[in-house]
Amino acid sequence: MPSDVTEEVLGVIAQTQRIPRENITLDSRFEELGLDSMDAVNIMFALEDKFDITIPDEAAKQIRNIRQMVEGVQHIVDSKAVQ
Predict the structure, then answer these.
(1) pLDDT band with cut points at 50, 70 and 90 for residue 82
(2) How many whole angstroms separate alpha carbon 63 and alpha carbon 40?
(3) What is the CATH number of the domain that holds 72?
(4) What span, in angstroms and rounded, lies between the C-alpha atoms of 14 and 20?
(5) Among 2, 73, 79, 80, which is most buried by a count of CB atoms within 10 Å?
(6) For the chain, what is the domain count?
């Protein structure tokens, strides 16, 4: 069962990119969804706002698919909760 963070990340992607939510899965790659690097940047900014987090530039550059994006956000959210 997907976590709340997973569902929220997928929702942000769907909303910012105007893609039907049901078309986005954890296994989706950016290319499959028609997303380019600028789209990814816009998604990152939206995720930072949504979760009140900062995604390091180096980490963002490594993200190539939706699963990596969700895992990265989950890691940052978990780390923030510990502080």
Answers:
(1) confident
(2) 9
(3) 1.10.1200.10
(4) 6
(5) 73
(6) 1
